[in-house]
Design brief:
Helices cover 68% and strands 5% of the residues. It is mainly α. The longest helix has 39 residues. It holds the Pfam family Fung_rhodopsin.
């Protein structure tokens, strides 16, 4: 192997290993935080949690194959590679094609389940999400089966030292599957937006939720870059033409996992802020005034015809409950109670005065 080709291999080896490992680790961390949040908030896991876990596990297959390709001459022209390394690299490319559609299908359907729990109260949104989930399942099945049998024998794709043939238009097929995936990602991104901006909640909540869900646009960008990279895909020289495409494939799966887990991490942040606050009861009081992403927006969606998000009487009763809890936890020296009872002709008059003194060192929640 020439010196320039060795440097090319070292460059792509380093980039492939570092990038895919870092983002695979971030995706794993995001999913772990999601599961921890589900445990401390409700104590049980939902269907979408398991679906996201399956999608993450399948993405590991593509990550491992990409790393193995990095040590089998990725970035170097195929004719410069020994036959064993060339066959191993082609097999790694074939494996990545199998894990990508299956992993993305589970991740996308998991996100759809989550969106359905938030905005499914609207029949049109629920129907759109149901239809989209069926389309994604059919797309993944078609992509997987075609990827497996694009050559006959299937092993002929990575081992040309046997009799076999491959279907015409393989590169066009890859681009078509990628284009359909991009359309699915875009539709998933756009479906909840009209509902969010018609909810009767504060503007800052609408902006915050829109921003969180808009992070999914990163998946669309990576999907587009992957399609563009397929334009220079050379099936007879996978070692030098598949390096960047493999990285984009892994990044697409990992970032989709991260974006699908981010909206469900609120209980973890709430627990962290509560434990690091100066006083636990004060931290809980402050956090109770913050919006709950899932419960607030799902209830607002189901009551979108109401004139108010929460009735004034409900607010008053909630404030009374919070105040009573705060009183019970306060020290007796901060509470002064004066009572006098006078019985006059069968009429009992009772006077009670309560005063709650709050330390000046504790800031107000609204500050």
């Amino acid at each position: 192997m020439a010196n320039s080709e060795w440097k090319t291999n070292e460059y792509w080896k380093t980039v492939s290993v570092v990038v895919v490992l870092v983002f695979a680790g971030l995706a794993t961390l995001a999913y772990a935080l999601r599961m921890y949040a589900a445990r401390i908030s409700s104590g049980r896991f939902k269907v979408e949690d398991y679906l996201m876990g399956i999608g993450l596990l399948l993405s590991y297959g593509a990550t491992v194959a990409t790393i193995l390709n990095a040590f089998n001459g990725v970035g170097v022209p195929s004719e410069e590679l020994p036959p064993a390394e060339k066959s191993s690299l082609n097999f790694g490319s074939w494996i990545i094609q199998k894990f990508w559609p299956t992993s993305m299908a589970f991740i996308k359907i998991s996100i759809i389940f989550f969106l359905r729990s938030l905005f499914g109260a609207r029949p049109i949104v629920r129907r759109c999400l149901d239809v989209l989930s069926v389309i994604i399942a059919l797309w993944a099945t078609a992509a997987l089966l075609t990827n497996i049998f694009q050559c006959w024998l299937p092993s002929y794709y990575y081992n040309k030292n046997q009799k076999g043939y491959c279907m015409p238009g393989q590169k066009q097929f890859f681009m078509a599957m990628g284009s359909l995936a991009l359309i699915e990602d875009t539709v998933i991104l756009l479906i909840p937006m009209p509902t969010i901006w018609t909810l009767k909640v504060k503007l800052r909540q609408k902006i915050a939720v829109t921003f969180i869900l808009s992070l999914g646009s990163l998946v669309c960008i990576l999907s587009l870059l992957r399609i563009i990279e397929f334009r220079s895909f050379v099936l007879t020289d996978l070692s030098s033409s598949s390096a960047l495409e493999s990285i984009f494939t892994c990044l697409e799966m990992n970032i989709a996992t991260i974006c699908g887990c981010l909206p469900l991490m609120r209980p973890v942040f709430r627990k962290f802020l509560t434990s690091t606050d100066g006083g636990r009861s004060y931290g809980q009081a402050c956090l109770s005034s913050q919006p709950n992403f899932q419960s607030d927006f799902s209830s607002a969606s189901s009551r979108s015809g109401a004139s108010q998000f929460q009735k004034l009487s409900d607010v008053h009763s909630s404030a009374t409950v919070v105040a009573s809890k705060s009183k019970r936890s306060s020290s007796k020296r901060n509470e002064t109670r004066t009572s006098s009872e006078i019985e006059l002709k069968g009429i009992e008059v009772s006077t009670s005065m309560h005063q709650e003194v709050r330390p000046a060192s504790i800031p107000d929640c609204n500050d």
